[in-house]
Write a sequence for this structure.
């Protein structure tokens, strides 16, 4: 195989983004797995991908993929635990699609077995579904809530800014100064110097943007939440009609005091 063919083959090979779980000791309390989960999930939410650094005031929790009341045998099983932001964790709660729905493809996305790109597609600031797994996860967890759209906008701005500066410097460095008129050489050199100065201050600028963004936006009231909740409820209701049965884990039995 030629070098060019090898290069094309490598370029066409997709890189897996699956979470790879560490080999961990058997622990009796699931909360003790938190350090392993943080590392394995890259300090990010299993569902919305928000990182700890981006979350700021939003705390992170340990989520049981299969709810504790539905699968008490998996409560302390590492493979059933997900690292999750509190917002997604609260929305997921004890949701547990019935067997018929799962057979039809309706279940929560899990990053240790499902490739993100197979189920989600980002269009602007909104995430769209590419599968029934994606559809159910988006609606059940409200993955297009305002805080996440703001977060995607910030990520986009930072990436575009850094990319533009990098490309600008490379373009200026690639200019053939010896072929330019004498009166333009000084201008080009000054432009290169200014661009390099901007690049060097980029990290500081990014920090400033992050600080200003993190001030309150992620925990501000969402004026669209009620209307979006109605739309999500309607979509989830349409899915649930297709598969009658309980979509929640059974509640834990309450102990009764003998009289």
């Amino acid at each position: 195989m030629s070098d060019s063919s090898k290069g094309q083959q490598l370029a066409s090979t997709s890189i897996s983004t699956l979470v790879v779980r560490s080999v961990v000791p058997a622990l009796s309390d699931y909360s003790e797995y938190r350090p392993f989960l943080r590392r394995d999930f890259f300090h990010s939410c299993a569902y919305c991908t928000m990182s700890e650094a981006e979350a700021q005031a939003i705390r992170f929790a340990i989520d049981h993929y299969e709810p504790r009341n539905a699968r008490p045998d998996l409560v302390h099983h590492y493979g059933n635990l997900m690292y999750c932001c509190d917002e997604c964790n609260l929305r997921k709660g004890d949701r547990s699609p019935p067997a018929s729905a799962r057979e039809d493809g309706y279940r929560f996305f899990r990053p240790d077995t499902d490739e993100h790109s197979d189920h989600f597609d980002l269009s602007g600031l909104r995430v769209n579904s590419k599968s029934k797994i994606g559809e159910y996860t988006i609606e059940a967890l409200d993955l297009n809530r305002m805080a996440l759209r703001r977060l995607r906008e910030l990520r986009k701005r930072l990436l575009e800014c850094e990319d533009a500066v990098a490309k600008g410097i490379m373009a200026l460095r690639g200019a053939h100064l010896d072929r330019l008129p004498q009166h333009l050489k000084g201008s080009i050199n000054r432009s290169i110097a200014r661009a390099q100065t901007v690049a060097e201050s980029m990290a500081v600028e990014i920090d400033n943007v992050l600080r200003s963004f993190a001030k309150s936006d992620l925990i501000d009231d969402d004026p669209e939440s009620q209307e979006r909740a109605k739309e999500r409820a309607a979509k989830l209701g349409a899915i649930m009609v297709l598969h009658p049965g309980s979509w929640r884990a059974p509640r834990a039995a309450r102990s009764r005091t003998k009289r």
Q: What stands out?
A: The chain has eleven helices and four strands. The chain has a mean pLDDT of 81. The first helix runs from residue 3 to 12.
